[in-house]
Amino acid sequence: MTTIRVAWGTATGPTAMAAYDAALAEANVHDFNLVTVSSVIPAGTDLAVVGTAPDLGPAGDRLTVVQSRADRAPGADEPGVVGLGWARSADGPGILYEATGTDAEAVRTAVRTGLEHGVGLRDWDVADSDVLVRRVEPVADAHSTVVLLAVYGESEPVV
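-> structure tokens emitted (159 positions)
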């Protein structure tokens, strides 16, 4: 059975890309080529909230993710907030929704609203649902990034 692992990271760096790479390192997915998918959870898939991903394969491999990301420039006035939520039907399949913003409750509400709409499109009875929200504070002299990812299974070779 495949597992989707929910991991996250926050970091700073001298550039936006450096901060993003460091946030991915905190989540332990920095050595992969990330491929973003739309957000459907296949039936028969476990979902585990892990914080930091375990070893998922060799560096340079492809890793499938749903990702929520917020970046802040040096000296920004507001935090970066990301949200990721899921709803799973009683018979197995589910959906993931993500949102970003500057206010944690607004992001949480946006994810819940998206999940409710998505479940309604599919006419599912929900058996499992949750929303996670993470934030990063801006700093005066560096870029800052927060990522929240649903990581599908293990990595696969790119070539």
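The two ends are 25 Å apart (CA to CA).
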